[in-house]
Structures are given as C-alpha cells and as structure tokens.
Design goal:
It is built from no helices and 16 strands. By secondary structure, the protein is an all-beta fold.
Length: 209
C-alpha cells in the first residue's frame, strides 16, 4: 500500500519538484528533489526519475536500480518523463542544448537496456543554432507494440511563428527512425504542453491507433 507523489514546491526563484512517499496511514517521507516532470516504477522495484544530470533508479522500499549519467553540454539539458517497457528497458526523451562549439538543440532518446547498456539515439534537432529557430521540448515515450517507442515532444519556436507544435516520432528498438506509415514520420498537432506543465497525455489503442 501507500503512494508516491511528485509535489511542486515554491522556491526562492523557481518552483522545485519534490518526490515524496506516503504510507497508507498518511505519513509522508521526502525522497529527493527532481528534474523531470514525472517518474516510472520498474516491476523489479526501482523508481526512475531524473535528478540533476542523472537518471536514477531510486529505492522506495522495493529495491534500487542503476544510475545513468545523462548526455549534456555546456548549456544543459531538459528531461522528459521516463517510461518502463515490457522487457524492463527504461526510455527517457531529453533535449541537449548545444554550446558555442556545437550550436543547436538536439532531442535525443536515452534507452537503458536490462543488461545495463545505455544507448542514446537522435530524434530531432534544430541545426541553425541555439535560440535561433526552435527548441524541441521532451514529453515522454510509449511503446508501439512492435519493440519500438513513440516519442512525444513539442517544438517551441522562439520568435513566435509558426506556433508551437506537438510531435510524435517513431524510434525503433535499434534507434532507427521509422517511416512509411501514419506513425512512421513526424505527426504534428496542437501542443503536448498546455500551460507549460507537460500535462498532455496519449495512449496507443488496438490496431496501434
């Protein structure tokens, strides 16, 4: 029993996200501050969440998982929500902001395998330069039923035109980008991030629709 909750706490400059656990009788325990808008609990017990520049498998009383350093650059990262796949893999979309020697903002998918191997696959990129055109903002990835995942993210345009776009991109298990079907390329509609809080949700139904 019990629950795991992410709480937004007002900080001196920006809101702070905190992870807490609660027992069935309502007693709460602070676990850690967090740098992702959500978490995923692995069937083996660990809770995966981004803390600083790491994807951490935190022990919430059910067992601990590995900690993985995230790819980064001088201008930092923006993490999405981790997802646990059926085979025990953990995926995490994240934006890596380039520095002076590597301009642009790259949306990548980190794939932590059950063996402990970590792969990082490119999904989308603004090649024109940091803050010059757009920034991909990660949401989350869900399994497509065929071994790959559908990565949801926004393109945020700095100059206000065109409007921000919500996108979905198919990434196969080997890191290749899918093609040739409705979900094969990049589908665009609305925004995943109403109010900037990454609250958009999506699921894959029967027939992978």
């Amino acid at each position: 029993g019990g629950a795991v909750v992410l709480l937004g706490v007002s900080g001196p400059e920006v809101p702070v996200v905190q992870l807490h656990t609660f027992t069935p009788d309502g007693r709460g325990t602070f676990v850690t501050t967090a740098d992702s808008p959500g978490f995923a609990i692995h069937p083996d017990g660990p809770l995966y969440i981004v803390v600083g520049q790491q994807l951490k498998g935190i022990d919430i009383g059910l067992g601990q998982g590995p900690t993985v350093a995230l790819p980064t650059n001088t201008d930092g990262i923006l993490a999405g929500v981790p997802t646990v796949l059926a085979d025990g893999s953990v995926t995490l979309p994240l934006t890596v902001y380039g520095g002076a020697n590597s301009p642009g903002a790259s949306l990548d998918l980190l794939w932590l395998r059950p063996s402990g191997t970590v792969d990082v696959y490119p999904v989308d990129r603004d090649p024109t330069g940091f803050f010059q055109s757009f920034s991909p903002r990660p949401h989350k990835a869900i399994p497509n039923g065929l071994g790959g995942v559908l990565v949801a993210y926004d393109l945020h345009y700095y100059h206000g035109f065109p409007n921000d776009e919500a996108r979905v991109r198919l990434v196969n298990a080997d890191g290749s980008l899918g093609g040739g079907s409705a979900w094969g390329g990049t589908s665009t509609f609305g925004t995943w991030l109403p109010g900037g809080n990454r609250a958009g949700k999506f699921v894959l139904g029967e027939g992978r629709i």
